[in-house]
Amino acid sequence: MAMTRRAFVRLTAIIAGVFGLAAAILLFLHHHPEAILALVGMAGFGLLWLVPVRLAVLALNAEGWRALLPGERQATLPLLTAAAFVRNAVNTLLPVAHVGGEVVATRLLARRGLPMPMTIASVVVETTVTLFVQIVLLVVGLGLLASYAGSGPLARHLWWGLVVAIPIVLAFVFVQRRSRPFLRLQRLAARVAGASFVAGLDGEAIDRAIAHLYDRPREWVRCAVWQMASALGGAGEFWVILKLLHQPAGLRLCVVLESLIQALQSAAFLVPGALGVQEGGLVGIGAVAGLAPEVALAVSLVRRIRQVGISLPVLWLGMRAAAGDGDHGDRIAKTG
After folding, report:
1. Is the C-alpha dihedral spanning 66, 259, 263, 140 positive or negative?
2. Which of 69, 269, 291, 316 is least crowded, fewest Cβ atoms below 10 Å from its Cβ?
3. Measuring CA to CA, which residue among 148, 159, 80 is closest to residue 114?
């Protein structure tokens, strides 16, 4: 039964990815693909600037993650940055519904000596904190979007999405703190798949570690601050991309793009790499913020180039490291 559910989620993600890819291709074909490619061509080797920008964004993210692992000497910033790269690569390139990346990153950290219960707890709490940060950033982005003429329909849809998201995230926190979810999952998996399936997994210890982190507000507040800095770094990436494309790049526009695209990608977590979602979102937001469709799609294409160019080699190295290849694990930790 467990395998069937995993297969169903994977199949759903693959189907969503196929439809998303088709939608993205149709958008490109409909909006003068030669003009889009010409814009991207203007960036040239300047696209390489996106590598250090991405490194800075994920390093800020990793610093927030590290705030949830106080006292763990193995949880160094280079190692957690490498794990963040791996997590991002898996979630971007594979049909894993934004869960597989967390699993691979957790295995990678466990291979480097971090205790599994605390590592899993840090991932769960960090993911929850990130959702709250995205909600705050979405409120800011919607406020800035309202300053553009004609933002009404798009803004209304996003506000309704926010109204739905807040109680879901709060319920997620309540379940983590009060319902001992990992112990329940461990018992359920043992009944369905057998005790050997969950051998070595201590659900009760994971639940205690999660509760411990929530009882230490200093840690998760620090995590939230670093995650917000990382999100603003994402806005900085939009600024760099627009400059490379020789387009106006105001702070308001970049924050709107980052906050709303992140919200759309989180809502469409089943779609691998947010295929079609990113493209459609940028075209829709661009229509309000004054970006021509060709420019919006050129921005999306540059982001895709960055995603694939960085994620493919990271994915290969990360999967090898998580599988126990110590040599590649050391290489990732050093290059992260």
Report:
1. positive
2. 316
3. 80
Confidence of residue 102 (pLDDT cuts 50, 70, 90): confident
Retrieve residue 280's tokens. 């459609």
Helix/strand number for the chain, H first, E second: 14, 0
Euclidean distance between CA atoms 235 and 332, whole angstroms? 26
For residue 147, give the DSSP letter: T
C-alpha closest to that of 144 among 290, 253, 283, 229: 253
Rg of the chain, C-alpha, whole Å:
20
Please, is 221 exposed, middle or buried when counting C-beta atoms within 10 Å of its C-beta (0-12, 13-18, 19+)?
Answer: exposed
The span from the CA of 153 to the CA of 243, in Å, is 29
- Amino acid identity of 113? G
Domain membership of residue 244 as a residue range: 2-335
DSSP label of 216: -
Rounded to the nearest angstrom, the gap between the alpha carbon of residue 39 and the centroid of all alpha carbons in its chain is: 27
User: Token pair 């400059």 is at which residue?
Assistant: 243
What's the rounded Cα separation, in Å, for the pair 219 and 138? 23
Closest CA to 11 of 95, 98, 102: 95
The token duo for 329 is 């694990």
Quick check: 61 and 77 in contact, CB under 8 A? no
Give the pLDDT of residue 292: 93
Residue 137 tokens, joined: 């950033």
Domain count for the chain: 1
Residue 7: both structure tokens together: 């297969």
pLDDT average, residue stretch 231-241: 95
